[in-house]
């Protein structure tokens, strides 16, 4: 790792494990497609994960699912529950007022990970999203916020490792970097993602994200998701941005004074 070059076999194994953990149950072909590896490679990876006890084959079906052992990988990770406990009543109240589901996400590596959401509290959703669900950092409103409010060294480190990653299309990365207007996001205090492509219903929803701070430092992103067919992004900003900013400010105040 002295030159920052990852071990390809390990990154492929992690991609497969993340895919299985995210979807819950997958065929070998689905795993190969999700991890973007050849079918024979997917077979070898799954056999290794089976040997290690991290996945298991479903009875009577050629589908593979994660085992409880996957949870042990997070044993050493302790994220403060303060964020969820402070934010929860505010996002529930916001969803009651606007109708649309609201999520709280934090950065984990090159992804944004859901900490809490109100999808289960709203009928205006295609899917329910639960803590642990992840989306790419450059392909989400929450990720754009995290990158914009990160210190320059951290942002460049993330981009540097993405550039050497064998899992990311370089044309996509170049376009995403150009579209990341850090100064504009900081000045306006929000980020958007039209037609989310990295969720469970690609292309059917758009998002508006606003930052949550703790003692002046970026802590998390709060995102409202709405149907593309229901309204334009510009209309959603006009109707809901003030509500989102007020709610995020209330959460920030609670975190900073708790």
Task: State the main characteristics.
about 45% helix; alpha+beta; 6-stranded antiparallel sheet; globular; about 260 residues; 3-stranded antiparallel sheet; 9 strands; single chain
Q: What is the compact description of this entry?
A:
The chain has 258 residues and is an alpha+beta fold.
Topology record:
Blueprint: H1 8-23, E1 26-27, H2 28-35, H3 39-52, E2 55-57, E3 63-66, H4 82-98, E4 102-108, E5 111-117, E6 134-136, H5 141-149, H6 152-163, H7 170-179, H8 182-188, E7 191-193, E8 205-214, E9 217-227, H9 233-256
Antiparallel strand pairs: 1-3, 2-3, 4-5, 4-9, 5-6, 7-8, 8-9
Helix pairs in contact: 1-2, 1-3, 2-3, 4-9, 5-8
The secondary-structure element order is HEHHEEHEEEHHHHEEEH
* Structure summary, number of beta strands: 9
Report the structural category: alpha+beta
- Estimate the global geometry from the Cα principal axes: globular
Rg on CA atoms, Å: 19 Å
Please report which band the strand proportion falls in: under 5%, 5-15%, 15-25%, 25-35%, 35-45% or over 45%.
15-25%
Molecular structure report:
This protein has 258 residues and is α+β, with helices and mostly antiparallel strands. Helices cover 45% and strands 19% of the residues. The protein is built from nine helices and nine strands. A six-stranded antiparallel β-sheet has the order 6-5-4-9-8-7. It has a three-stranded antiparallel β-sheet with strand order 1-3-2. α1 packs across α2 and α1 (8-23) packs across α3.
């Amino acid at each position: 790792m002295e030159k920052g070059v990852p071990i390809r076999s390990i990154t492929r194994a992690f991609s497969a494990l993340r895919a299985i953990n995210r979807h819950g149950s997958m065929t070998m072909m689905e795993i190969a497609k999700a991890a973007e590896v050849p079918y024979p490679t997917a077979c070898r990876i799954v056999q290794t994960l089976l040997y290690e006890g991290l996945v298991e084959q479903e009875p009577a079906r050629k589908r593979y699912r994660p085992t409880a052992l996957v949870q042990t990988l997070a044993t050493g990770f302790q994220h403060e529950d303060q964020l969820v406990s402070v934010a929860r009543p505010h996002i529930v109240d916001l969803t009651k007022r606007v109708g649309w589901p609201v999520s709280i996400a934090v950065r984990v590596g090159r992804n944004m990970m859901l900490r809490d959401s109100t999808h289960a509290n709203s009928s205006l959703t295609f899917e329910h999203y639960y803590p642990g669900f992840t989306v790419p950092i450059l392909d989400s409103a929450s990720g754009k916020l995290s990158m914009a409010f990160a210190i320059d060294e951290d942002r460049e480190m993330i981009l540097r490792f993405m550039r050497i990653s064998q899992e990311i299309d370089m044309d996509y990365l170049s376009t995403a970097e150009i579209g990341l207007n850090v100064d504009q996001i900081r000045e306006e205090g929000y980020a958007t993602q039209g037609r989310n492509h990295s969720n469970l219903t690609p292309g059917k929803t758009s998002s508006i994200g606003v930052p949550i701070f703790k003692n002046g430092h970026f802590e998390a992103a709060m995102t409202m998701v709405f149907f593309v067919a229901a309204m334009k992004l510009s209309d959603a900003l006009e109707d809901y941005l003030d509500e989102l900013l007020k709610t995020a400010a209330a959460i920030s105040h609670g975190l900073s004074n708790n």
